[in-house]
Each structure stands twice: as structure tokens, then as C-alpha cells.
Amino acid sequence: MAKFLTKYWIVLIIFVLGLSVSWPLFSGGYFSHQDDLHIIRLVEMRKCFSDFQIPCRWVPDMGWGNGMPLFNFYGVFTYYLGAIISYFIGYIATAKLLFFVALTFGSYGVYLLVKELWGKYAGLTSAVLYLFAPYKALDIYVRGALTEAIALSIIPFVLHFAYRSVVTDKKNYKLFTLTLFIFLITHNIMTIVFLPVVILWVVYLLFADNLKSLKSFSIALVIAFGLSAFFILPAFLEKSLVQTESLTRFELDYRANFISIKQLFLDRVWGYGTSIPGPLGGMNFSIGWPHWILALISIIVIFIKKIDKNTKYLVLSIFMTFLMSAFMTHNKSTFIWETFSILTFFQFPWRFLSLSILTASVLGGFVVSVFKEKWQIYLSILLIVLTVILNWSYFRPREFYKITQNEKLNGELWEAQRKGAILDYLPKTALEPREAAQSTPLVISGKIGANTFENYSNRWKFKVEVLEDAQIEIPVYYFPNWKVKVNGKVYPSNHNNLLGRISINLSKGSYTVDGRFRNTPIRSIANILSLISLVVFILIWKKRIQL
């Protein structure tokens, strides 16, 4: 035991501190947060599993019962993982476990990265700074931004394994490829924020290695993107099929969500409100006092202490990235937002705090590293204590409430989840409903007898006796490519109705009608690319192919 503690004491410190900010997640019931849709997303993913809809794209219950192409656009890794776990511990416990991972796991990745760069005490300091960053508390306990927080827990490992591939475990790119792939399918906006950072980091490492690893790194990047193609290609190339304007209007317009210098560096008031211009919304958008102070100190250090050239350039680059990410949260950066239209989908400029806290945490570790080793542990302890004291109180939800899984999946709570975020991925041809979808097909004209409707994740089916020529509207939104068959034969359908739902015309007679969700050419190509990449990756992992 003593030997174990001696070897892994830093890991244990990170774990214990992680538990200290995660204690609410181990309480009974559930906790309040803004994006309270994780349970239904897990349910929907499980339905995809049951129906062998893999990759999962269409979900039947959201869209207020009309269905929506949720996982064609929304980051999938969290819910693939969560759905598997939920078979063993249920939905609510799974959601809380994922929040715990999102909050704590990335700190260990930061430790590994900074330890490789500047030593274990620097790594420990950076890990704790990252763990106790106010933005992490905001993501978990206020916003409930699970997928974004999961992405922030993965990106340090991407950077670490990139470094390790070149420096300490040369030519072993498997873990870099794997973590980058996972990151790419976790959160679209975080991908856009951090992908330039990953690319610049890889370029830096390549030149540090005199481009010896260029071929291997290039192949690793291609495989990672190939593995993620099943999600990335449809998510970006099919966005014209949904009403993306709903993602950027009114309170979601980036121009309404810039933050002030005071909010960024000085504010310590913690609230559970919403993002509105100025401090009145009640949300805290602080980088964290220890974080920005240490970042500032780091840039002073490289000019007053004798630091090797490579380290000086690296620290300067990280500091400039820190400054740029902070700048992007302020309205003085409007000209950049107006230049690059893709940034409008960020909705909230303060999402760049995700990059600010990572770079500031890394710079904090560097500050520790410039001292003699015998002093590093004392400085590390001091900084850790100060960080914990200053930020620990942020890590708590507004309230707990007693609730069972059955209660969460029934009644008003279930209806609220079915209706939630309905505008986010509403098909282009659809209209927001004013009430929940009916449980059976709707007769627009004509007359029918009894019908039974079965609705699954990627198919639906019903039998009907048509007494008079009828127009029948199926309670499912149209979206490419729903294919309808009547009595086993392909049958014409339309969506020329008020809500944009699938509709068919039937003459008098008895019918079995079924619809199946098929892939578009883009989805099919994307799936094939991912399958090919998976085969190649497995062969590389088993050392049948050498990079």
C-alpha cells in the first residue's frame, strides 16, 4: 500500500479533490440545471440500439412526439457511452456519472500533459487549476452542458497523446488517433474552438521533431477524421436540411452575449440565471483569479528569467492563445465574428472561456516549474490551497430534488423533455407544433376504420381499413430520407401539410403501411468512410500495419 501511495500520490490528490467538487453528484435524486434533456437523449439512444439504428440519427419522441434528426447533428459520443452504461445503473445514475467524468477526468489529462512538459509538480498545479476553473462549475451545475464538459475532459488527452507520440513514445499514434476521434464526435462547437489548437500543436511538434513524424502524424489525422466521418460529414453538410436560423436568433444571437472585462477578470458573484448583456443575468463568466494572475505572471517570467528558446516560444504562444480566447468573449472582437460566419453558431462568445481556462491552467504549471525543485512542491501546495479556497463554493447546484427514474419518464416531466429544444433541429419543411403529436395517424379527409400505430426510432408501421378515399397524416416529421411502403411496395408520400409531417393518400381497401428512415448519399458515404477507417485502425492497433 505504501509503495502504491508513493507512486500515485499525485493521482490520488487529483481524485480526492475531484470528489470534493463532485459530491452533489453522489446525492440521492437529481439536481437542477438548464439543459435538462440528458435523460430523454439517453432513452432515445437506447431505442436506436434496440432498433439497430447505428449510427443513430433519428429519434422518435423528441420534437414533441413528431421525431427529429437529433443525432444527425448533436454530438453523439456522450450518449453512445451513456446508453451502454444505463443498461447497468439506470438513466439518472448514468447522467450523474457522466457529469462526474466531465468535471474531473480532464484534470488528469492536464496533469499528464504538463508533467511531460515541465514536471510533476507543475502538472499537479495545472490539473487543480483546470479542475477548479469557474467555467467548469458553470458548465456542470448551472448550464448542465454535459457534452461540452465531456469535450473539455477529452481535449487535454488529445494534446497529451500528440506530444507523447513524438517525444516519449515515438511512433505510437494509436491513442492520439483514438482520443481525437472521440473528441470530434462529442461537441461540434468545441471541435471548432479546439481543432485549430490541435493542428497548431501538431505543427509545433512536427517541427520540433524536424518533420520526421510528418507522414505518421498525417496518417493518424486522416484516420481520426475518417472514423468520425459518419457524424461530422452529415452534421456539417446536411445542416441546410434543418432550420439553423433558430440556433442563432434572439437570446442566442452572439451579439447579445458578449461579456465585460469586469465579468471576465473580477466578478465573484455566483448565480443561476441566464446569459444576458451585462451582469444582471446572474451567471458568472470569470476566468478565475488564480488562473489569469498566473497567466500574467508566466509572460513576465519568460522575460526576467533565463528560459530556453523553445520553452519561451511555447509559453508565449500559449499566452497569446489565452489572450485571444479572452478577447473573443468581448464585444471588441465583433469584427472577427462578422468576418467568420461559422462563429454565429457559437451562440455565446463566452464559450471561448473553455480555451481560456485550459491555457491559463497550463501556464500556471509553467510558473511553478521555473522554481528550484525543492521549492516547487511548496508553491504548488500554496497555489492549490488558494485555488480551492477561492473557487470551491461555486461547485454546487441550485437545488436537489427527490425523483425516481419512473417519475422522470412519465407525466409532465416526460412531456417537458419531449418538447424541449424543439427548435434546435426542426426539419426545414416542418413547423413548430402547438401540441404534442397524436398517438395514431390523423385522418385529414375521408373515412377509415380502426388502425394500430407502432412508432420506433427508425421506422413506423400501421394497419388500416380505408372506408372512403382518405388522406392520412402520420405523426412523424418528414426528413430526408423517409421511405413509405404500402402493402410491401414503395408508395408516394408528401409533406404538404401545416406541420410538414409525412402524408399519404389511400383509396378504399385494407393496407399495411410502413415507413423506414434511410440514408442520404452523404450519410452512406460517411458511413463507408468510417467503416474503412475502422478496419485500418484495427489493423494498426494489432500492428498489422505500421505507421
Give a summary of the structure in a few sentences.
The chain has 547 residues and is of the alpha+beta class. It contains 20 helices and eight strands. The chain is elongated, with a radius of gyration of 26 Å.
Low-pLDDT stretches are none
* Structure class: alpha+beta
Largest sheet: 6 strands, antiparallel
Query: What spatial form do the alpha-carbon principal axes imply?
Result: elongated
What is the helix content? 40-55%
Average pLDDT rating: 91
Number of strands: 8
What's the helix-strand series? HEHHHHHHHHHHHHHHHHEHHEEEEEEH
The Cα radius of gyration reads 26 Å
Ends distance: 40 Å
Approximately how much beta-strand content do the residues carry?
Answer: 5-15%
Distinct helical segment count: 20
- Count of spatially separate domains: 2
How would you explain this protein's 3D organization?
With about 550 residues, this protein is α+β, with helices and mostly antiparallel strands. It has two domains: about 1-30 and about 75-400, no CATH class; about 440-520, Maltose phosphorylase, domain 3 (Sandwich), CATH 2.60.420. The protein contains 20 helices and eight strands. Helix 1 crosses helix 5, helix 5 packs antiparallel against helix 6 and helix 13 (about 290-305) runs antiparallel to helix 14. It is elongated and about 90 Å long. The two termini are about 40 Å apart. The model has no long low-confidence stretch (mean pLDDT about 90).
